[in-house]
Amino acid sequence: MKVVIVGASHAGIAAAQRVVAKYADAEVTLIDRRTTHLSFIGAGAHMYLNGEIESPAATDYCEDEQLQTLGVDLRLGVNVLSLDADQRLLSLEAVETGEQTTLRYDRLILATGSTPRIPAVPGFESKHVHLLKRVDDVITLRQALDTAKDVANQQVIVLGGGLAGTEAAMAMRNAGAKVTLLHNHDSLASGYFDHDFSERLAELLIAHGIDVVTNVDVRRMEDVADRGVVIETAVDTYAANEVIVTIGMLANTMTVGDEVTIGVNRSAVVDEYMYTTNPYILAVGDAATSKNPQLQENWSIMHASGAVRQGILAAENLLEKRIRSPGSQAAYGVKLFDWFFMRVGVTADSARFVNRAVAEYVLETDQVADYMVADNAHIWIKVIFDPATHVLLGVQMQSKRDFTEMFNMMAVALNHQVTLEDLAFSDMMFEPHANTPLNFLSDVALRALDENEARS
Question: Can you give the pTM of this predicted structure?
């Protein structure tokens, strides 16, 4: 069985490793146009700019030699020119030499990843405008700041206020620069959090000296010699020494778009087994859509853990459709300064956008009792739920403590349609250093039930 995987980032690497482990007779070819830092994790950008790691490449977790040792035919610096799905044939071109070859497959896994959205405005080509997708992008930005005579007088504009934009703004502020964050929506990270949590996120950035401007319509950018860039919006003008663009990502599916059905963010539409509309082609990671179980809608979830999970699923289902994907609960987290913001499931705003009836409840509390002063953590936690069935649809949280494992369990709970009653009356551990006798998860669920009953 000839298995060709296009794209050697998180999803592609995971798929290749799993195919080799499961199918002794598989001939695995892994193709990528890049030649280095295949497993670079995007979080390496802000971690490096923050000074948390010595190089953005420190997040690389898989070397070429590891794949070659497994027996994978690793072809780097190779572009896919076209796909003939009827013949199951790829046309390839070596980036450096231009040499063209063809490659047949029995199964094709598209793990082509994503590319940054480019602003549809003049002036983007300036050397002072930076993306944060590749290792080289991050190093170039860091060098621009390091060569500045006075970093404290460097004005950095971050264009885009999603999670990547807020992280970039924080990193630039931590580096000592003056930072302005321009966002085209009325709420930061509006695709991740509801308005109330977005407001607290914005207040945190402002408290740390970052200017936050929302509802911005950028009209043009103009390079000003070696001084930087001027950004013109519908109502104002902003000058910057450096500009960071983080306005989202699009799937790299342009080469194969005529052979499979394309959905949101240019991602290939896949079924619950990771198959596209072509019976011999699977898609994973940023190149594939994910099903949201609560809304039964296809959406585009671009993060490393989801990509790895989908890569493994595709390998499991190569010969027969064995294991269904439970969909994606969009478990995201961001640490801004000393605060964690986390979410899983749908937001109330996104549910209402598709006319789903939802209710929500927010509890502000402490994790432990007052007598545990040294170990306490203040919490805002929101539950989003169906007001008729009480099925939990989403959870959002802000705290200075890391509740990642709790949110992982909430993702499992959402997959199994846990209700507020399940959450309110489950037998949860009590330990004074960890929680109160009425765990805050049970507390918020019980209060949500009470308020929902009072409304009905």
Answer: 0.92
